Amino acid sequence: xxxxxxxxxxxxxxxxxxxxxxxxxxxxxxxxxxxxxxxxxxxxxxxxxxxxxxxxxxxxxxxxxxxxxxxxxxxxxxxxxxxxxxxxxxxxxxxxxxxxxxxxxxxxxxxxxxxxxxxxxxxxxxxxxxxxxxxxxxxxxxxxxxxxxxxxxxxxxxxxxxxxxxxxxxxxxxxxxxxxxxxxxxxxxxxxxxxxxxxxxxxxxxxxxxxxxxxxxxxxxxxxxxxxxxxxxxxxxxxxxxxxxxx
Length: 247
Hints:
Layout: E1 6-8, H1 26-33, H2 40-43, H3 46-49, H4 51-58, E2 65-69, H5 75-84, E3 89-94, H6 96-99, H7 101-114, E4 122-126, E5 138-144, H8 147-153, H9 155-168, E6 169-180, H10 188-191, H11 196-205, E7 209-213, E8 238-244
Parallel strand pairs: 1-7, 2-3, 2-5, 3-4, 5-6
Antiparallel strand pairs: 6-8, 7-8
Helix pairs in contact: 1-4, 1-5, 8-9
């Protein structure tokens, strides 16, 4: 099988029509996630996060089974819910320990988001990665801005997490990783960053084929500032990886 390790440069002119070989176009996804049920606050982040283009790059389409890994408060969970539609299925995964973080901040946020069965195609999974038990059942998974926390504590644990998600994916399935890029010699733990090279190396160790994109790159960020600092928050230079499970 051909190796998918490549670098894709996606220009702004291409973004509106971009679609993967097996997914919906960015325009189709953008129309789906423009649903009036989405809160204005959530939609305000679309310009920086480019969810329609990201999901098109990952190959998401209506009717798929998808997973938001380390879903936190569920911003991407909701995007995925509208993207896959009523015939699709979304798993919002958080670890029990993560849900207890900061006095249960994420537990409160995702519970509020899903209250009253508001997103009918979403199922919560509150399990550690090694306990998912869903082999070969998911078409596309995504984890956004959280992988660095696992990697910076333990690169070995990060590889283990990726292997667990690979087991959940169907053959040929995809995991997308979005994270804040960092400098190789910086204190990335304090800055809440990691390097793209570190993420690629972990993905290869886990047995994935890797495609990169500069879709979320930002020249405003020199990688030296903590990502929650007001002057850079929401505008960090982010790498986007498409990890494919071999057939």
